[in-house]
Write a structure and sequence with these properties.
Elements lengths: L7 H11 L1 H4 L1 E5 L4 H13 L6 E3 L6 H5 L1 E2 L1 H7 L4 E2 L2 H4 L4 E4 L7 H10 L8 E6 L10 H4 L4 E4 L12 H7 L7 H13 L5 H17 L7 H12 L35 H19 L5 H5 L24 E7 L10 H8 L3 H10 L17 E6 L4 E8 L7 H20 L2 E8 L2 E9 L2 H9 L9 H17 L4 E8 L13 H18 L2 E6 L6 H10 L2 E4 L5 H11 L1
Parallel strand pairs: 1-6, 1-7, 2-5, 5-6, 10-11, 10-13, 13-14, 14-15
Antiparallel strand pairs: 3-4, 8-9, 11-12
Helix pairs in contact: 1-3, 1-11, 10-11, 10-12, 10-13, 11-12, 12-13, 17-18, 17-22, 19-20, 20-21
Length: about 575
């Protein structure tokens, strides 16, 4: 029975069992199910006997993950007691990360560092249970997991392959230059620039050859590696030769006769055919809808992510709240009185336990345990920044621009009362400009509004991108909240690269709008065209914004719509 007879998720599990160090890990997509439990049990059985297998909780602290001082045991013993970290316990084995799509960037960074060469040898099986494209692993971790597969209900066709013999055979497996070139060319054609991806594909091809009993990588091994490593990460479709325009005929050659160029050798033809076959295998395995979901999505790698993945910073000031039991970590404050009140009722019982263990009496000392710790909590008011993104192009000049100026002034007065901030972005001509950084200064806002010019083209994509960057910056700073208010008719005619053209400009605007939706930024689109514009409705839907048509809106009406959205 060959490896191709198994479902893709099982194929990935067997490859990981053969070369865990080279492949780094497996991203297993799909919710909890008997099929996933059976696959994990099969993978654990396929590993060498005694291989460590550790389950990693998402809320693990650094001391438990990396090792360090065990505060609870140290207090009980009266001396420093060190604990071994989970990563050290899993050395040479597997770390299982459930609900990996919810991993915080800090945890993902520590796991990614553990997979770097020279660190503790281990591999990670990340269980991605996300239900939408926005829920995915942090890019820093996903890049270091060589294999990606989706769990299906297909039953395994038979007994386990001979993995022990494959592991012994792996070191003797060779891969020729043509196969390496084919894997690298396939990765480039699919828009994958990371060298780790090509390395993982090479490791997967060698593991597949070892499982098949070969000492040299074959075409089938390269195709399997392309399906399990390259295809799930595809960010672009390869160019079709039929879609390329015909090249113009060359001009007549008037130079003296020269020797004809050498004919293409058989080796070059074989390399090209190998690349085409490998690319075709990867393209056929691209999940349906993957490229559509990636179109316009921000690269998760800046941490990717919107508010979902950002770790909450504990407030150090503000309105005091009731203390809560928890683990003492960096940036948190211990409520000493609440901790003592929690520990006092247990002193007699703990003293009895010390006597049974043969420990000396505590005397006047208070015996504390980890469960006694209570942490101070504060409620910090969330600061809101309203970012007005004003279309100052030729179609928005005159009365519409005046209404936008009036709306900003009215809202700024409200923000002054609530101690919120206001920012102003304008786009016209060939790009966008930040006219007013986040501020509470009424005089500064009025000066910026008075000098706001109008006229020129409509670079809608540039305005959306500038708003996206500013909104992300606001939310990344101390947990602030950004509300984006767009005043435009959405009649874009300047593309993202500055070239004129309505079709490309509209497509670029929708692409950036998808980034805003993925980031989870609260937004409101006010359609200032004379009548409701279908393009504005489509843009609001793409960015997940509330759509408010104001064919004859006045400044007070705009202010009322924004106040309702806040």
């Amino acid at each position: 029975m060959g490896l191709t007879d198994w479902p893709p998720a099982w194929q990935a599990a067997w490859l990981l069992a053969v070369d865990p160090a080279g492949l780094g890990g497996l991203c297993l997509r799909g919710g909890a199910s008997p099929a996933r439990d059976a696959l994990l049990a099969g993978l654990r059985q396929a590993l060498p006997p005694g291989t460590p297998w550790r389950r990693l909780p998402l809320q693990v602290d650094d001391d438990r993950l990396l090792g360090g001082l065990d505060l609870g045991l140290s207090l009980a013993a009266g001396r420093p007691v060190m604990q071994t970290g989970l990563l050290a316990e899993a050395a040479g084995g597997v770390v299982l990360l459930p609900m990996a799509e919810r991993a915080e960037p800090g945890l993902a960074a520590r796991l990614a560092a553990a997979l770097e060469p020279g660190a503790t040898p281990l591999c990670i099986v990340a269980l991605d249970e996300g239900q939408s494209p926005d829920e995915s692993l942090p890019a820093s971790l996903l890049e270091r997991l060589g294999l990606i597969a989706t769990v299906t209900a297909d039953a395994p066709p038979g007994p386990l392959p001979d993995l022990a013999a494959a592991r012994q055979r792996l070191s003797a497996v060779s891969c020729d230059d043509a196969t390496v070139q084919a894997l690298c060319a396939t990765a480039a054609a699919l828009g994958l620039a990371s060298m780790r991806t090509a390395w993982h594909a090479w490791c997967a091809a060698r593991a597949a050859a070892a499982l098949a009993g070969r000492t040299e990588v074959a075409q089938a091994d390269a195709e399997l590696a392309a399906r399990l490593v390259l295809a799930p990460r595809a960010r672009a479709l390869p160019q079709s030769p039929e879609a390329e325009p015909d090249a113009p005929p060359p001009p007549p050659d008037t130079s003296p006769a020269q020797e004809p160029p050498p004919a293409e050798g058989d080796a070059d033809v074989d390399v090209r055919e190998l690349q085409e076959q490998t690319l075709a295998a990867a393209q056929a395995a691209i999940p349906a809808g993957l490229l559509e979901s990636l179109a316009g999505a921000a690269s998760p790698q800046g941490g990717g992510g919107g508010r979902r993945g950002a770790p909450a910073k504990p407030a150090q000031s503000g309105r005091p709240l009731a203390s809560r039991r928890g683990t003492l970590r960096a940036g948190q404050r211990l409520d000493l009185l609440a901790t003592m009140r929690a520990a006092l009722p247990w002193q007699r019982l703990r003293e009895r336990e010390r006597d049974q263990q043969g420990l000396p009496p505590a005397g006047a000392r208070l015996l504390l345990r980890r469960d006694d710790f209570h942490l101070k909590r504060y409620r910090r008011p969330q600061e809101t920044t309203t970012v007005f993104v004003v279309d100052a192009s030729g179609s928005q000049a005159l009365n519409r621009l005046a209404e936008a100026k009036g709306a900003v002034e009215l809202l700024l007065a409200d923000c002054y009362v609530r101690r919120d901030r206001v920012a102003l972005l304008a786009f016209r001509g060939a790009g966008a400009e930040l006219l007013l950084p986040p501020t509470r200064s009424l005089a500064r806002a009025r000066r910026s509004l008075a000098s706001l010019p109008g006229g020129g083209g409509t670079p809608l994509a540039a305005g959306l991108e500038a708003a996206w960057l500013l909104g992300c910056g606001v939310q990344a700073r101390d947990g602030g909240r950004a509300v984006l208010v767009f005043l435009t008719d959405a009649r874009a005619n300047i593309a993202r690269d500055g070239s004129p053209g309505r079709t490309q400009a509209a497509q670029d605007a929708l692409t950036v709008a998808a980034r805003l939706r993925a980031e989870g930024l609260a937004s409101l689109l006010i359609d200032t065209s004379p009548r409701p514009e279908p393009a504005a409705m489509a843009l609001a839907q793409a960015m997940g914004a509330r759509y408010v048509p104001l064919p004859h809106g006045q400044a007070a009406q705009v202010h009322g719509a924004v106040a309702a959205a806040l």
